[in-house]
Structure formats: structure tokens, C-alpha cells
Batch of 3 targets.
Target 1
Amino acid sequence: MRNELNPYRGRAVRATNRHGLSLTVIDLPSTATRQNVIVADEVWAEVDLGVIAVRDRHGLLNAHSLGARRGVLLCGPPGTGKSAVRAVVAREVVGEFTVIDVEAKAGAQLLTAVVEEAQRLGGPVLLVLEDVDLWCRDRASADAGLSELLRAMDIEPDARILTLACTNDAATLDKAAIRTGRFDSVIEVGYPGRTDAARILAALLRDLPGGRAVDAATVVAALPENTSGSDIREIVRRAVLSGDDGNVSTATLLAEVGNGRYRAQAPAGMYL
């Protein structure tokens, strides 16, 4: 429960580095849900284990020296739903949890201070680290972010803190950073298969004009390999913009798949 001593407890805040740690209350996106964010069931299962540990089983775990603190690292290529999963989880737990979204500079330089502040807030905390590969690489890179992450993740294993981190490239992270006890689960969020691609397309089309008449199987069959959920969303957006009065159809969707413009690519070479 929020009070004058803990004005941030139970709220969503962003941690930034403004000549020191600064917390600012933020609004969370409300449109993402487990129904429209299509990822493998194991992703939700691992996140739910973390929530249960710090919300429900912390007393039991800590009484037996097992530690309630949990870390989950989502890894995979861009556009596959990692950030969307993070948004869904944050929305689900805020109120019971304090949600702290840590921007990159604060993560690289002040993550220890963030964790210490999370402990002072009391109650369960969801600590969100986006794109950790941008500021925390292996020790060969002499990246200061690595030592900051290691220090922060080793503070108080009994703390009621669930860390949910995302990376596009887990291979760049030092093995010490992703061992059990720091990140207990490393889950790949990969490109959707045909079945999940069809579910993503159906969710996007459901309430659009003409959407229910689309032959989703034909559209999905035309998608090239390694098409992300973000790619499918852009295909649908372009079909809405190019269709008559915003109506989507199998033909407009296939045209957008075929022209490939849904994948923004910089031209090769230099302009002289």
C-alpha cells in the first residue's frame, strides 16, 4: 500500500540517471494482454514461476535458504515479442508489485542503487531491464556495465525482487551474468512458426473492417522464413493504409507480403 514514506510503492516508475538516481512515475501500456501477445507457453510459465516466488512463496523459500529472488532473461531477435511480454507482465502485477523500468544509462551505472531502492520500497518488486546487451557485454569488452550488473544481482538473494530482462543477443553477455542465482531462466523468444503466425495475424485482424473474411492460411503460407510478429503487424498496418476505406483483404495482405516493404532496410552504399 502506498503511503507518505513510500510514495512509489505499488506504482510503475522509470529509473534514470540524472546526476544520480531519479524515479519518475509512468503509465503502462494497456493494450497488450496474454491473448494478443503470442509467444510460446514456456515463456509465460517461466515468468509466472518468478512471480510466484517473490509474491507467494518468498517465506517458504527464504526459510529454507533457497532464496526468493528470481531473474528471467528473454532473448531472441528483434520484433519477436520480448518487449510485449515485459509490458504484459508489468501491467498484470503493478499494484501488488512496484514496477521499476530501468533505462540503459541507469542500468550501466546505477543498477546497484536501483536494487537498494527497491529493497527500501518494501513488498514485491518487478525490475525491468530492456536491451541489456547494449550496456552489459562480456568482460573482454571492459564494459563497466557488467560489473554493475554482477554487483546488483548479488545483493540480498532473499529480496522479493523479480528481474525481467531482455536482449537481442545473449551471446554477447558474459557467462557470469547469466548463471543461476542471477538469471535463473534464460528463455528464447524466437520467430513464430506457422501456427503462431496465424494466431498473431488473427488477433490483429479480428476487429478490422474486412478482417474476418481474410484467408489467413493463405497469407501465412506466403510469409517468408523468419517473419517476426512485428513484421506481421506492419504488414497488416500497410494493408489498412493501402486498402479501400481501410478495409483489409487477402489480396491487399498478399500484396504487402510480396513487395517486402514492411521490412525497413537502409540502402546499400553511400551517397556522394
Note: The chain has two domains: 12-188, 194-259.
Target 2
Amino acid sequence: MHPALANYFKTYTKEAAPFMHQQLEEWRISKPLTGLRVVHHVPLVPNTLLKIACLIAGGAEVTVTNPSSFMTAHPEAVDCLRQADIRYIENLSQLQSESFDLYFDCGAELYQALGKPKLGSIELTGSGDQIYRSQTLDFPVISIDHSLTKQLETVFGCADSCHSAISQLLGINTVNKTWLIFGFGKIGRGVAYFCAKNKTSVVAVDICDNQRRSARQLGIEAINPLDRQTLHQAIQNAEIIVTATGSKSIMNAYPHDWFSGKILVNMGVYDEYGASFGEEEVLNQKKPVNFVLNDPTPMRYIDPEFYIHNIAALTLLSENLSQRVHGPTKELDNRIIEDWCKYHSFHLEIINKWFVNFEGCVR
């Protein structure tokens, strides 16, 4: 391994990233991806370099790209790739004349830009999961979005990174603020988990009865956005407003002056505020606020997600999967969760309480 990459395994120790260290040790011996050309299209930040290093150790010929639709590649990570002589491409259109065996995709952007891969695609996100499921596919896809492992990032990771990013940008103690969350899917739950853990005032807004019911079961006040009077009052009472619905321009539905003087935050991949709001009105120019951090998700929460996103490639290689979207096996998912709890001395009961059960209105 090039020293530039190896240094990141010192920065992110085995205690911080046990899954990545394990995968590196195993794959540098077994080399299960030997001879495969792959594109890695995952937010390129310093901790992503461990994931890329594992693919290279596994024998893959890796081309790295970045989902620039919602974030800018971290200069430090780009510099490391260049030092290590790993191919990095800014513009996906430059790859249109090439063919690849596997996509490690985000938002289904590789599929939309480059067409089908030879063997299959592994999707990282809920938005990409929806795009792939809406297509008539002629290749298999494994989406890790509907997994418990993914929720270590979207629930617990977001609980940490959302408030950290706001604090970094504004220099405030977010625990002392009142919060309003639009959307009570996986990311909305994460923001609510932070508030509940810190006994911070929070209200959730969701159009889905099941999601509102779920919020109330967790002790979170929840309102229907169609109840305009109650919603208006909740907005007036809030100091921090976070969007996490997974829908574009959802805030255009409400009068702009309702939000005057509020701290406005987006945690979704899309611009959930829309044209009614200027970039200067929303933290991080309406892009996901956690991407102002060097590590948008703390390593302890993204480590198992990197692992499952990589290892799903072995399922594509070894199983004769049908040409549709699949999830990771429950056995693999449960094993990762159990191991993660052991590594970090975390109570499984908290996971059982806060994670989405994927029945109705899931985002």
C-alpha cells in the first residue's frame, strides 16, 4: 500500500475503524476483486480513503469519482489519491466511453451517467435506491439503504454530525436551542435522537401517519404539515429548523416569512428549501450541513457502512442474483450490528428502539 494511504490507517486506528482494518487484513491476502474494473462514487472525504484502500488491496482496478451534485471532494483526499497514483475523475462524462465491471454508486449517479455495468451495482443511499427500483433493470443491484448497518450512519451518525456542523459554523451550543425537524425517516430520527439524548426541545413534522406515530412512541411531539395553524406555531417556537424529508423544494409550500430569523439547515441530498430560499439563508448553501465537517459522519458510524458497501461486491460475484434491487442478507446485517455493539460497548436495545423497521413511509 502506498504510504499516503497507509497513513490514514494510523489516523483512523483499529479502535476507531475495526471493520475497515479487518477488511484490509483479509482482502490483502484473499484479493477477491482481482481483475475487476470498478468505479467508486462515494463522497470523497478523508475517512473514505480507507474504503478505497480496501478495494485496491482486494485487487480491483479502481477509478474514483465524487457525487459533486451535493458536496465538493475534500482537497486532502484528492491530494492523497494523486500521491498514491489512484485515478480520480472530476467529471463523470469523461468515463462514458469506458466500461466497468462494478459500480459502487451513490444516488444512482453512475448508472444515470454511464449506463449499465457489466456485473452489477452496489447503491449507498435511499435516493439512489428509489431510482434503481423505478427502473426496468438488466443487471442486479444491491442496495444497502434498507439495512440496520446503514442506520448506524443515518441515525447515530447524523445525531452527532448535524449538531457538530451547526456548532462549527455558528459557534453556538445547539443543546440550548429548540428544534423542528421536517421528516421523520432515518435522518430525521437521528436528529431527534440527539435532541432526546440531550433533553433538548424538539418537534417532528411528517405527512405520514406511521412516521408521526413512531415519533410519538419515542416521546417526540409530531405534527401533520397539513395542519397549517399548528405548523405555523411550531415554526414560530423553533430556533433551529432541519429538513430531512428526501424531497426537493418541500419548503416552497410555506410562506417565506414564517422562517425569518431561524437557523435553517438541510440534511437531505436534495435542496429541500427550493427557489424561495436563497443559498445565503440556509447553512452550507442549502447542501447537507454535515459536509462542512472533515468527516461528515464520525468514523465509528461510517466504518461498518463502508464495510458492507464493499463486501456486497462479493455477493454480486458469487451469487446468481436476479436483475432487480436486492438488499444485503439479514445474516450479514445482523452480524455487523452485533459486532459493532461489541466493539463500541453499545447497547443493542437503543438500536432496537430508534431504528426504522421499513414498514410504510420509509425514507
Note: The chain has a mean pLDDT of 95.
Target 3
Amino acid sequence: MYGDSNDDSNDVFKVDFKYYKRRAMRPDLSTVIDFERPEDFPIELHARLQTTPDCGDIGIVADTELLCYSVPANPGLIVLPNPFTPRGQRQWISRTLRSYPHPPNRTNLKALRPPDLFPASLNRDTFYKQLRWVTLGVHHDWDTKVYDLENVSAFPACLGTLVKKLAALLGYPGFEPEAAIVNYYAVNSTLSGHVDRSELDLDSPLFSVSFGQTAVFLIGGATRDIKPTAMFLRSGDVVVMSGESRVAYHAVPLVLPRGDDKPWSSASEGCGDSAVADWSSEAEYLSDHRINLNVRQVFAKS
């Protein structure tokens, strides 16, 4: 299809992944779903969501109608384009960089700990240059692909509040956030096709929030011979994977620079709270990184 070998002929997902991943020749992005132009793509309005005054406390725009979309080709997939204020984005980005990499949370860097003082340049700091993931709550064991039920730390209260609010807005009021994985991507990095099936409860949705640079996200079906849908995920976008999409193959073959478009920054909005008062380190890091925060319910509720 895209000039790949016959070895990939039955793995349609891999063919598309390699197409969007390629560096020598830029892939054609004209058919990638863009939720900023919903009228131009095969997507549907899923719901109109009305936020409440208390949403401002967790960084979401308050007293506002938000539109979320579904993709008919991927049943159970819901996308809520950026519901965050610029200050809200800064708050959550700061937490993923300043707070979440610290113990008792786990990172990919078993021999390194985050510096005691937050660095002026994350791109020159040994720890942050090598940081790829952090686990929160019930910790996922990347070697065994199962949750380590003997190693559980308290799930961050503020993150739990955010996800419960998003879940309630999107029609999942019983969702209980119990585990999270924060992934850190440089602009030249990828995430290969996989299915998230380690949770004991696969009936509950998975919530994913993106910050920073834009990603091309692929999501297919239960097997790799199903052609995936390609879509842009921009800073602040929320994805819900439920139903058939909860156990669908998905991947990130490409992270794209946003250029001058920085929705976490607003000239008309100050940084009045201490969590984001000194933003220079995060701003430098975001210039060539994407952060994804995904939250799961591990255990089925009786």
C-alpha cells in the first residue's frame, strides 16, 4: 500500500504505522482527522456538555458548552477537544513534570531520582532527558505486563478529581481512577501499536489527556488486520476509549511541532498561582515534547 514489504501485507495496522512514522518522505496528513475542522471529516457530534462553575478549580473552562465527538469507524471512541484554560494546562503540565516523577511514584529510571531542585533547563538535566514514563496509584509492571498489587501508592487527589469530573461530564459517573501512566515523548519518538488489557476491569473506559506538541494518533480494532483511523491530538485534548475501542490497537507514530500555536499560553492571562508562577523550565521542555496522561480503573466494582 505504502511501499512496504509483503511481510506486512496482513498487518494493516503496522503498514499505516510505518507510513506515518517515516522520516525520509513526509506522510500525507490531509486525511488525518482534525477535530478543529469537524465538518471536513467522517466524525459525528457525540454530545454537548455543560460545564459547571467548579470546573474552573481543576483547570477546565467553567460555565461553558463543550462539544465532544465520536468516530463511527471506532465504536466507543469519544474525543473532547481541549476543555482546559491556558492556566489549567500550565497547572497540569507542571504537575506531570514537578510532582509526579517523585517517589513513591515509579519511573523508567530505576537508578536515577529526580533532582531536589527543579532544573532551570529540563532538556539539559540527566533525569529529565531520560524520563519516559511515570506510574501512579496501582503501579504497572512493564516486565510482566500486569499490575503490581503489592506496590500501590496513593492516587493523586487532584488528578482523581479531574478525571471524575471528566467522567461525569462524558457519561461515566461511576468511574473510579485507580492507576495512571504518564508518558513523555520527544518530537522524534513514537509509541508502537498495542492494546491496554492489563486491567482486571476492561468494561470501564480509559481516559487520556494530551499536553504539549501535537500527535498523530492511530486507533484500529481488536486485531491488527483492521485499518486504523488516524487523528490529530492537540494539547488539552481528552480521549475516552470505551466499548470496542477500549481493547483496540492504538499507537502514536508521529509527534509534530506546533510552531507558534501554544494553547497553554495566553497573553491576556497571567500566571497568578504559585504552581505555575515560574514557567520557563516547562516552556522550554514543551517546545519539543508531548506529555500524555492516561488513567484507568483497575478493579471491577461489585
Note: The CA atoms of residues 146 and 198 lie 5 Å apart.
